[in-house]
Amino acid sequence: MAQRVASALGFLGSDRLRWPLSLLLGVLLWAASLPPYGIGILAVLAFVPLLYSLPGVPMLQVLSKGWLAGTLWEFSTLWWLIPTLVRYGNMAEPLALLLVLGMCGVLGLYMAGFLGTMALLVKRRGDWAIVLAPFAWVLWEWLRGVLLSGFPWWGPGYALSLYPAFLQGTRLFGILGLSFLALLGSTAIALYLRDRRGTLAQVVVPAALLLFVIAYLAGAWWNDHPVEPKPTVPVGYLQPQIPQNHKWDPQFSGMILKRTLDLSMAFQHYGLKLLVWPESSTPFEWDTDSAYRRAVAKVAADIGSPILVGSVLSSADGYQNGAVLVMPDGKEAGRYAKTHLVPFGEYVPLRQWLFFARPIVDEVGEFAPGHSLQPLSLPEGKVGVTICYEGIFPSLVRREVLNGAQLLVNMTNDAWYRGTPGPAQDFLIQRVRAVENDRYLIRSANGGVSGVVTPRGQLQAATPKGQPASFWGLVEFRSTRTLWDRLGNAWLLLPLLVVLFFARPSRANQPGARLSP
After folding, report:
1. Structure confidence at residue 351 (pLDDT)
2. Same structural domain for residues 103 and 144?
3. What is the largest CA-CA distance in the chain?
4. What SS3 state is found at 474?
5. Across-strand partners of 237?
6. Whether residue 187 is found in the same domain as residue 252
7. How far apart are CA 426 and CA 430, in angstroms?
8. Which residues are catalytic?
9. Sheet containing 459-460: which strands, arranged edge to edge?
10. Residue 409's beta-bridge partner residues?
11. What is the total count of domains within the chain?
């Protein structure tokens, strides 16, 4: 079987074509692993052609064609940004395409860095060094999430998280732990195809298979294990379904407010302990519009529930994208301002050179970042809030939990991305945050997906897509700490030491044992 698969890889052609065609095959497999297709296991297979063909490729080709493949890899993930820029940024399609390709080109450098690292390891240690791919990958994926403000959107770990059993493993080492597992699978397959009778393959392949089986079975058991204590706290969330082109149009402001208030009034006799509105729920500025504040306070009093309102806030630094907690007595109990803003969505980085990207920001206004990750306090416990894009940063949510958050809330306005895979990808990313931190997560989205996510990642009482809706669910304020909460990414020190150790020049300057292609 392995021989037939290895022979099938012969379609990649001559040595000159094998590397670029391997990269292209990897891109195609990666694209098929993403929502809406969501065949997560293909993300594991996507790395196999790259690792299989890597030994013997000159470094310049690895870096140049690896960067091009990385750019296409990212474009297959983020292409849906183009219609957003065209619809709401008033950009011409060629300019929107150029901007997104530029962004993907920057992100593609991380794939080039990973492949370059692997090429260096193979050069220094021999072909067997492809077994170090999981160690190198998680380092570059981590860098992708922190450099240049960071953009950790999707990755092989998220592809594995599509399977509930594997998802549970994020409690231990976070999403990068799942990425390590995915690359371990890729490496084992590539190694088996290259030299299935070799000693290294006979050790690594069974070990990888055993680890996959253990991770899956342990995760499946934990996923079926009831969450204790059982949830008893009723909470509500809105999905107003306001079209984005109406959102900031003054002629629709009355309709938007009425719909939001009417949806809230549906909870008048539910005894909610918290009602969550989406990001920028209505087109009013909280601190300067007293009539708006009175309307919200009246609804909070009528339904007898605190309301967490997504709204534009004022600060000494300027306008902020934030959330205000309004109690049933009409008083403000706390506020949160978004700390990690969306590049090209809420501010323009390097605006003197990227002035052409301003239209999309001007649609909603440029915001100033907040500076606090302290949770908001309710009588039942503390709530950690993230707004839209912030939830893709695992360490940001972890810091909120370490600051005392017992319940997580993510509010978003994903009407920007209607009709694209963007909202589905975003929701699946937010779901991982609930499992990593063993917390219930309330997700309130203007256009869906909205719902309550359990600490096992199960979606409770999801709202229908494309329809205005008000739903409720049960949560519990939890104070547990997962291994991820306690250690975070500290475990990445081990991959760093491994890569540095094997990347050092060999005294004998020997290429090492080589595997037969």
Report:
1. 59
2. yes
3. 79
4. strand
5. 276, 471
6. no
7. 6
8. 279, 338, 388
9. 376-378, 381-387, 407-412, 441-445, 451-453, 459-460
10. 385, 442
11. 2
